[in-house]
Specification:
The complex is a heterodimer of chains A (about 325) and B (about 650). By secondary structure, chain A is α+β, with helices and mostly antiparallel strands. In chain A, the strands form three sheets. Chain A has a six-stranded mixed β-sheet with strand order 8-5-1-2-3-11. In chain A, strands 4-10-9-6-7 form a five-stranded mixed β-sheet. Chain A has a two-stranded antiparallel sheet with strand order 12-13. Chain B has about 650 residues and is mainly α. The longest helix of chain B has about 35 residues. Chain B is globular. Classes of the chains: A alpha+beta (about 325), B mainly alpha (about 650). The interface between A and B is large, with 108 and 110 residues. Chain B: It comes from Fictibacillus enclensis. Chain B: Pathway: Energy metabolism; oxidative phosphorylation. Chain B: It is a multi-pass membrane protein.
């Protein structure tokens, strides 16, 4: 009988090996900043409890299934055994205690994560503000203090909190840099705030993780964490050397499609704040004569030609 | 509209589907005509109001949809098996995961369970049929037509591609043009009518039609779970109906409930969707709990442990199911307090679920366990569902959820809940009550192969996905780069997926094999261990009136009591009286067909067709209203003959 359930044990073993053996390799469990670190601690803390619950249930399961299988000797058979106040109290109270043990750090973390993280050195630094705007299927970043704007990448100073003001020009997206911390939605006509911070220099990948159509998979961006001085130098160089963002160029970015990395020495914030203006992108598309096309319609099929935009959007003539 | 927009063109997979659909339809038509089965089909099935036959049709449709949804799943797994795969393009992949999710939840899980509820519950409570047999037929046909309308989308007009959650503004006209999303709205709306009617029907049936002596706390656990499920349906489905209607207004009539333009509110859709969607999870998992309770108790030959605790656990789960919906979008920025409250409510729902797990374990304690296939599925459920449960608690911790949200960790979690819970229960229940439906068992040896192959495949498929999630792989991506390092685990997951596919094929073979070779049952108590009234029928497959004489219940497991009292299930000849039964009706079938016409018209925004269809629906309503048919009586002679009673 034991043999029958062998695969379960094998799987359980496999599971623990994956979870416990390879922690440092998985991005969520290999944090590069205080926010992700706090979340990792919470995750590992909870996995401990969960492993305990699994062990208890599996041990009970194994013992009961083996001991009470149908066999000749049935001294233990009690068909009317129907309950036990004591046992039932135990398995009501213990889960309640576990949930209290999980709820307290959860709630504390929920509150902590809405505040700027404290840097590794312990000193409180003023957060850098970056506005992140999702547009199908790219990310536009504005640095209001520095007066610069980037597409599909950001540079941030390490050891300094960054406050992202998230919004979207069209679909509901989710801003996520797993190495630095959990995600939050970017929505049209709304502003949500997310704090992240990098403890190390390096490049971390970020993405939209909330499905939003054809180009979703490739709606990614890079986060370059550099020293404060390198950051200041980059911001200054960008401000003086990069081209200005023209309104025409910005309106082109409002069309559905992917984009290359770009850098500008001015921001779009003077024309539009997508957190207040829900339909700017849609109206821009209308103004430019771009009509949404049925992906199975004949126009969309023509649009698969390389000469035209390849994302189900074609210019009407 | 041009023909090449009406039919989906340009993809060899779709052409293959076109051909196979065409051949299947021709094959069915040929079979029906050649073997002169049309009249039989019409009389016995299309017009039936018998709960057992409707149940069988529900289950058959659900198995068909399991196949469709399963093929979708395997196509996705093939695409994801290797990095940078070109097997499917983004749009096609998006359509496939959308239809996979929608079909598996709405057109597979729910009808499968409702089918089993249909077959079993009236028997289990000692009733002749449901409270409203005609309404039951309307339920089935609207579900079936809704499912068909949704399913034709992939060859006609294009499938929806905004995800089964269809978040706005993505699902709006600006970002999802074309008929695809309309199929989702209309298909679900029509099927939803059926579900709501089922909710009302079984609520009344269970409350009003129980055999004398069966008090609420003597009801079998499956009946309890069905009762609570129906209450959830009655409260939750109107929310879906309204939400779908509002989005339909947005898409067809230029309203602005959720749109980008005109100050719509996209977050409102997410809230309404999950306000229905979370209770929906419990709609598909509570009946599963009920079935496992019956099966575990039966094959442990023991009374259920902690019956009252089990009932109250379900009642609490049902109530709480309406208080946790925000956990589907902790990342929407609703603030610390809201997230904290919903984190805690969600964790609390784990307590009654945990209680149930321990009660099942202790039902086996001091029992005599026989390892039949339904029991194996139930044991597999306990082992696997625990993983789904504990990862659910992990996801409930909002601060950590910011990292799990929208990843494969979540995908793995809900498959552990929905497959180990719902799908396992469907298989377990189907095998358990198969002799009740068809008069013979499914082959046990083949059944055990199905169980082990499926179970191993299931774990090989989804364990890697937990890890992929922790490694940052988002759900719903159609491909990934080799540099991400996700290739190996994805390949493993695909292998698991195909093992599950193979298990399904073995199951299909078992249907055929058992039909040909299984021994036919002679008694109503096919497993010899039956505890509840559905096993107390005089023949393996109960006659259309179920019980010649309505049984009287004196104890919780009535058949066990009867066995102890050495009481025969055969009715006494002097107790036989004529039985009133409802007439068959073709109206539900026609009503649903008109719904199809209306739905199809609205999908393509051909309003004349929509109006014609709706007028048709209205006419069938009027016909029914003026129908004075009051049913018929089964004569005493006929009953005596059926029951083989001689004077």
């Amino acid at each position: 009988m034991f043999k029958r359930f062998k695969p379960f044990f094998a799987l359980g073993l496999l599971l623990s090996v994956f979870f416990l053996g390879g922690c440092s390799n998985y991005i969520v469990l290999d944090p590069k900043g205080p926010v992700a670190a706090q979340q990792k601690d919470l995750i590992l803390y909870s996995i401990g409890f969960m492993a305990l619950i699994c062990v208890v249930v599996y041990v009970l399961f194994t013992v009961i299934v083996i001991k009470y299988r149908d066999r000749k000797n049935d001294d233990n058979f009690e068909p009317d055994h129907h309950g036990s106040k004591k046992l039932e109290t135990i398995w009501t109270v213990i889960p309640i205690l576990i949930i209290i043990a999980l709820a307290i750090p959860t709630v504390t973390s929920i509150y902590d994560l809405e505040k700027a993280p404290v840097s590794a050195s312990g000193e409180k630094k003023e957060p850098l503000v970056i506005t992140a705007t999702a547009v199908d299927w790219k990310w536009i970043f504005s640095y209001p203090e520095q007066g610069i704007e980037t597409v599909n990448y950001i540079n941030i100073p390490k050891d300094r909190p960054v406050q992202f003001k998230l919004t979207s020009a069209d679909s509901m997206s989710s801003f996520w840099v797993p190495a630095l911390g959990g995600q939050k939605y970017a929505m049209p006509g709304m502003e949500t705030k997310l704090y992240l911070q990098a403890d190390h220099t390096g490049t971390f990948s970020g993405r939209n993780s909330n499905f939003n159509g054809e180009g979703f998979t490739h709606q990614i961006f890079d986060v370059h964490s550099v020293s404060q001085s390198d950051f200041d130098k980059w911001a200054k160089d960008t401000k003086s050397k990069a081209p200005k963002l023209s309104k025409k160029q910005y309106d082109q970015l409002m069309l559905q499609g992917e984009a290359k990395k770009m850098t500008f020495s001015s921001t779009h914030l003077k024309w539009v704040d997508h957190a207040k203006d829900r339909d700017y992108a849609v109206k821009t598309r209308e103004r430019l004569g771009v009509v949404p096309q049925n992906p199975h319609g004949s126009k969309a099929k023509d649009a698969n030609n390389p000469e035209q935009d390849s994302h189900g959007v074609s210019h009407s003539h | 509209m041009k023909w090449d927009e009406f039919f989906v063109t340009g993809d060899p997979l779709i052409y293959g589907a076109d051909v196979s659909i065409g051949l299947t339809v021709i094959g069915i038509l040929f079979y029906l005509t050649y073997f002169k089965k049309w009249q039989w089909l019409w009389r016995e099935w299309l017009t039936t109001v018998d709960h057992k036959k409707l149940g069988i049709m529900y289950i058959a449709s659900a198995v068909l949809m399991l196949f469709r949804g399963g093929v979708d799943a395997l196509l996705m797994r093939v695409q994801l098996a290797t990095p940078d795969s070109k097997f499917l393009d983004a749009q096609h992949y998006n359509e496939i995961f959308t239809t996979h999710g929608t079909i598996m939840i709405i057109f597979m899980a729910m009808p499968f369970l409702i089918g089993l509820i249909n077959v079993v519950i009236p028997l289990q409570i000692g009733a002749r049929d449901v409270a409203f047999p005609y309404l039951n037929a309307v339920s089935f046909w609207t579900f079936f037509i809704g499912a068909m309308l949704f399913n034709i989308s992939f060859v006609i007009g294009g499938s929806p591609s905004a995800g089964w959650t269809s978040y706005m503004p993505l699902a709006g006209n600006e970002l999802s043009p074309g008929p695809g999303q309309n199929y989702y709205l209309l298909g679900l709306q029509i099927a939803g009518i059926g579900t709501l009617l089922t909710g009302i029907n079984f609520l009344v049936t269970i409350l009003k039609m129980r055999a004398p002596g069966m008090t609420l706390f003597k009801m079998p656990m499956f009946t309890w779970s069905a009762l609570i499920t129906m209450i959830i349906i009655v409260f939750a489905f109107p929310i879906l109906t309204v939400a779908l209607a509002l989005m339909t207004f947005d898409r067809l009539f230029g309203a602005h409930f959720f749109t980008l333009q005109g100050a719509g509110m996209d977050m409102l859709w997410a809230n309404l969707f999950w306000l229905w969607g979370h209770p929906e999870v419990y709609i598909v998992v509570l009946p599963a709990f009920g079935m496992f309770s019956e099966i575990i108790s039966t094959f442990s030959r023991k009374v259920l442990f902690g019956y009252k605790a089990m009932v109250w656990a379900m009642v609490i789960i049902a109530g709480y199911s309406f208080l946790v919906w925000v956990h589907h979008f902790f990342t929407m920025g609703q603030g610390e307090l809201v997230n904290s409250v919903f984190s805690i409510t969600t964790m609390i729902i784990g307590i009654p679920t945990g209680i149930k797990i321990f009660n099942w374990l202790f039902t086996m304690y001091k029992g005599k366990i026989s390892f039949t296939t339904p029991m194996l599925w139930s044991l597999g459920f306990i082992v696997n569902f625990v993983i789904g449960g504990v990862t659910g608690v992990m996801l409930a911790m909002a601060a950590a959820d910011y990292q799990y949200h929208n990843t494969y960790f979540l995908v793995a979690h809900f498959h552990y809940v929905l497959i180990a819970g719902t799908v396992f229960s469907c298989f377990a229940g189907l095998i358990f009550w198969y002799p009740k439906m068809f008069g013979y068992k499914l082959n046990e040896a083949i059944g055990k192969w199905v169980f082990w192959v499926f179970n191993i495949g299931f774990n090989v498929c989804f364990i890697p996905q937990f890890i992929l999630g922790l490694d940052g792989m988002p759900r719903r991506v159609y491909t990934y780069s080799a540099a991400s390092g996700w290739g190996g685990l994805n390949m493993l997951s695909t292998v698991g997926g195909f093992l599950m596919g193979i298990a399904f094929l073995i199951l299909a073979y078992n249907f055929y094999y058992s039909f040909r070779y299984s021994e036919r049952e002679n008694t109503g108590d096919s497993w010899g261990l039956g505890r509840t009234l559905e096993w107390a029928t005089t023949s393996a497959v109960p006659p259309h009136y179920n019980f010649a004489v309505t049984p009287t219940v004196t104890a919780m497991d009535p058949l066990i009591q009867m066995k102890r009292d050495k009481q025969d299930v055969k009715p006494k000849i002097e107790d036989i009286k004529k039985i009133h039964m409802p007439d068959n009706s073709g109206v539900p079938f026609f009503m649903a067909s008109f719904f199809f016409v209306a739905g199809f018209g609205l999908v393509f925004e051909w309003y004349w067709m929509g109006i014609v269809g709706l007028i048709g629906v209205f006419i069938t309503l009027i016909i029914r209203s003026f129908d004075k048919n009051e049913g018929y009586y089964v004569s005493e002679e006929e009953i005596k003959e059926t029951e083989r009673l001689t004077v």
